[in-house]
Amino acid sequence: MSEAENPARRSPDHVVTVDDVRKLMGASTPHFALQIRGRIARLIRGLAADDPARLLGEHEIARLTALGFSGEVRGTAHEPAIRPLASVDDVAAAEAAAHAGPGH
Fold first, then answer.
1. In terms of domain of life, where is this protein from (predicted)?
2. Distances in whole angstroms, Cα of residue 35 to Cα of each of 4, 28, 32, 55, 64
């Protein structure tokens, strides 16, 4: 997945909507969560603090940050011999929470 954006959404006269944010977040998976997070952050950057698209975008940025750092799992509870990947540990989860703060 590239960081490239839809040219229509990059147009200076485009009004960012909640639908624009939803279109970006629709395909979020752990592998691409951080790239999508960056695209949403750029999309909502100039919006007012109370704009519905910005509020949804900020919520999604926090969700995608957590997904990107803790969404990858290997093994299950019934397979104790298989350790989880490093992205699933408590340290990674704490780092994800720290990165989800304001000022993305």
1. Bacteria
2. 10, 9, 5, 19, 9
